[in-house]
Design brief:
- By secondary structure, the protein is an alpha/beta fold.
- Helices cover 47% and strands 14% of the residues.
- It has 16 helices and twelve strands.
- The strands form two sheets. It has a six-stranded parallel sheet, sandwiched between helices. Strands 9-8-7-10-11-12 form a six-stranded parallel sheet, sandwiched between helices.
- Bound molecules: uridine-diphosphate-N-acetylglucosamine (UD1).
- Residues 8-10, 36-39, 42, 63, 95-96, 127-128, 196, 228-230, 233 line the site of uridine-diphosphate-N-acetylglucosamine.
Length: 356
Amino acid sequence: MIYLVGGARPNFMKIAAISRAFEKYEIEYEIIHTGQHYDYNMDKTFFEEFKLKEPLAHLGVGSGPHGKQTGMIMERFETLCFTEKPDMVFTVGDVNSTMAAALVASKLHISIAHQEAGMRSFDKKMPEEINRIVTDHISDYLFPISPQDRRNLYNEGIDQDKIFLVGDPMIDNLLYYTKETEKISISKKYILVEIHRPVNVDTEQNLKEILIALNLLSIHGNIIFSIHPRTKKMIHEFELEHQLIALDHKEPMGYLDFIKCMKCAAVVITDSDGIQQETSILNIPCVSVRDTTNIQYTVKYGTNVLVKADRNKIYAAAIYPLYNEFKKSNFPEQLKQLNDGNASERMAKIISERNK
Ligand code: UD1
């Protein structure tokens, strides 16, 4: 029995693709939901859209400081693992739920798989970087999404026999659902925005710069702003609501609506890891408000450009693709193969062969 653990929005698209692969390979699995995210449009909407099976357990941890959230997941997940004794804990991504579940499994000597292993921003101020490093160093199956991430694991001295370069289930899911989604029928050019990193939204100066840039850009096209709860909370706290008046701001969008919108956007402005990848695969210009990226291939071969949280820099980077033809991305053959929509099946095959 494999416990497929997740709890935050970016986990669910990966869990969807992995579930489909597990079912195809007749691998026995249950979903464990930590409850890190809990609002309907951060959580349940994805279970409905992807027709995920009901979680075997919902740990209901909710929001809180890192120590408290991580500790609560560990305490509750440990009780579950202790009584139910799964054969493997399968973790995805780099959120607090990922690391907490892996730490519990490690202490109970349960085999651990980590999807998205080896991803590094080399910025230890990002909580996700700590989550990735810790999880990778205690995992038994490491599934990097790119050759760069595999190199990072080699450089950290992780046993090469545990590392399997497979590609990214998030892209599996994107390709699975983009076939189904129609193009959105908006004739006017628009810019799609999703910003939520603490470094951008928890600092008044950075959040203000981003909102001013969006207002400057709104003269050139509609701004569709899918607002993460953290961002909404901080806009309220810094009394910046007036900066939203000219923007088409929405509650966090569901997956299908978001990719529908992304497919036809003139440009996407984000600080999300996943969206940097998705836009690169779909060949949509992407401006990332980040100092570093942990997905270098999106900058090297994809559509992604990095900018600081500075109104002029964001404006300049986003205005260019609005008025100029964008250079098509040209992935090397290996990256094309890794992003062929079958990464989850490659993981399922490895797990079923090694656990016969
Ligand atoms: C988490 C992940 C981040 C990921 C992001 C995607 C960590 C360390 N961070 O950040 O890597 O990119 O999810 O969304 O795991 N909130 C709600 N409703 C919810 C969830 C959160 O209102 O359903 C609010 C709460 O006020 C909370 C804040 O958003 O304090 C932040 O949520 P949290 O899960 O702590 O971090 P994220 O910023 O979402």
